[in-house]
């Protein structure tokens, strides 16, 4: 376990984030002495945890989490009022993300684990970002990041993220493929501790283009980017592809785990995320690559329709916490 706490932002206070956070904290084992000490510092609204009847211990700057008899929420509370009449839940989400990044940058936290937010409500709160990733990229002064979704069976990165199918041909460039491949390989080496990673690259067109019959993105964009990646990493990495996407995952998952690629680079959102969520949705984690801080996240939404019913599944958050801890240990 990292010596510095992992920072959790539970997400939208009206969603299932606080519930799955509390369920995850309660699952932590006691110390050898029988006491309980939180390895996680939560940054977010206090009211939802009070509603859950969770014991709350307020964070004091520079003071370690106390030892107590049972689980509790170690919390740096978001303001209970928003400035200038901003939408309070969205403001609390944005404030929490900003504060969490500041804590990590100042050496008071080891990594960031984020709960689900509403992009619309975030913007109503005064934070004009399309989502978590774009906001974190700006807060960490990172010009370019890569999204990876990971679970025990697959790790999949994306060359393009939230782009409409109509705009994909214009958005997919050699630079995007190269940069996402580079950040994936660097993360596999640095955070995942894989000395000589193997990256499998998917095609863009059906049947990998059929030698130009169904499109030329493979020869014009993907293969040149792969050549540059091979030149940059040399013997420190292996690349394969571009593989036809319709058959790749079935063939890959039929192999022994030791023979599979360490990560897959998909060209667009649904091409990569559909199979990774299909094989193990509950334990799939969103990882942001390329930032100076480690960030993992749940792969699901706010669950407003089931919030407050006590039925939310904490599996994805627990997996995000476990992965963040492993990534911190590898980077150390």
The number of helical segments is: 11
Q: What is the N-to-C succession of helices and strands? A: EHEHEEHEHHEEHHEHEHEHEEH
User: Which structural class should the secondary elements be placed in?
Assistant: alpha/beta
Task: Give the assembly state of these chains.
Answer: single chain
Rounded mean pLDDT score = 94
Output the radius of gyration.
21 Å
Task: Note the gap between the termini.
Answer: 11 Å
> Which strand order do you get reading across the main beta sheet?
3-4-2-1-5-12-11-6-7-10-8-9
State the major sheet. 12 strands, mixed
Q: Can you describe what's shown?
A:
- The chain is of the alpha/beta class.
- It contains 11 helices and 12 strands.
- It has helices at 17-26, 47-51, 88-105, 119-124, 132-139, 168-171, 174-190, 217-233, 245-253, 269-280, 315-331; strands at residues 6-9, 40-44, 56-58, 73-77, 111-114, 146-150, 155-158, 198-202, 238-243, 263-266, 285-289, 295-298.
- Strands 3-4-2-1-5-12-11-6-7-10-8-9 form a 12-stranded mixed sheet, sandwiched between helices.
- It is globular and about 65 Å long.
- The chain starts with 5 loop residues before the first strand and ends with a helix.
